[in-house]
Write a structure and sequence with these properties.
Layout (H helix, E strand, L loop, with lengths): L1 H26 L8 H7 L8 H9 L3 H5 L4 H29 L7 H32 L4 H10 L2 H9 L6 H22 L1
Length: 193
C-alpha cells in the first residue's frame, strides 16, 4: 500500500514537472533571445521596411558584420556607413558613365539624358559628404541630425530617375535607394527609442 502511494505521488510529480516544462517551452521562457539583427529588422514595419529588405541591405556585402553586431546602435552605424558607401559607389559610376559620354550627343534625347545624369551627379556630390557626416554622427550615438540627412537621402535615387528620364542609370542608383530607405528606418527607430 505504501508503495502504491509513493508511486502515485511520484507519478503526479512527474506529470506536474512535464506540464510545467511544456508550458515554459511554449511560452518562450528559457528560449534564447533573438539576435539584434532579427529584433531590429522585425521592428521596422512602420517605416515600410520588411525584414527581408532590412536583412538583405545590411548583410548584402558582409554578412558577418551584420550578424555579429552586439546591438542596435552597432547596426545603425553599419546601416549609415553602408548608405554612405553606396552613395559613393553610385557617384563614381555616374562619373564613369559621363566620362564615356564625353563625345557630343548623337541626338537631342541623348543630350537630354546626359544633362539629367549630370544633374543626378550633382545630387550625389552633395549627398556623399552629408552621408559621411551622418555615419560619423551615428557611430558617436548622435541620431537626430543624421536622421534628417538620411530622410533627405532617400529621395536622391528617385530624383535621379526623374531627371535622367529614359537614360540607363547605373545599378548602384537602385542599390543606394534600398540602402538609404533601410538606413533611415534604422536611425529613425533609434531616435524614437
Amino acid at each position: 500500500m505504501a508503495m502504491a502511494a509513493t508511486s502515485s505521488a511520484l507519478l503526479g510529480a512527474l506529470l506536474l514537472l512535464s506540464l510545467f516544462s511544456a508550458f515554459a517551452h511554449c511560452s518562450g521562457a528559457g528560449a534564447s533571445p533573438a539576435a539584434p539583427l532579427d529584433q531590429l529588422c522585425g521592428s521596422l514595419g512602420s517605416f515600410y521596411v520588411t525584414p527581408e529588405l532590412c536583412t538583405s541591405a545590411l548583410c548584402g556585402v558582409d554578412a558577418s558584420a551584420c550578424r555579429s553586431a552586439r546591438g542596435t546602435p552597432e547596426l545603425a552605424a553599419l546601416a549609415t556607413r553602408l548608405a554612405a558607401a553606396n552613395a559613393t559607389a553610385a557617384k563614381a559610376s555616374l562619373e564613369s558613365a559621363l566620362g564615356h559620354a564625353a563625345e557630343p550627343a548623337a541626338s537631342a534625347a541623348d543630350a537630354e539624358a546626359t544633362k539629367g545624369m549630370r544633374s543626378c551627379l550633382q545630387l550625389y556630390a552633395g549627398a556623399v559628404p552629408a552621408l559621411r557626416w551622418a555615419a560619423r554622427a551615428v557611430a558617436a550615438g548622435r541620431y537626430r541630425g543624421a536622421r534628417e540627412v538620411l530622410d533627405a537621402a532617400q529621395y536622391v535615387a528617385s530624383g535621379c530617375a526623374g531627371m535622367a528620364g529614359e537614360a540607363a542609370l547605373p545599378s548602384e542608383n537602385d542599390r543606394f535607394s534600398s540602402m538609404a530607405i533601410v538606413a533611415h528606418a534604422v536611425v529613425a527607430s533609434m531616435s524614437t527609442a
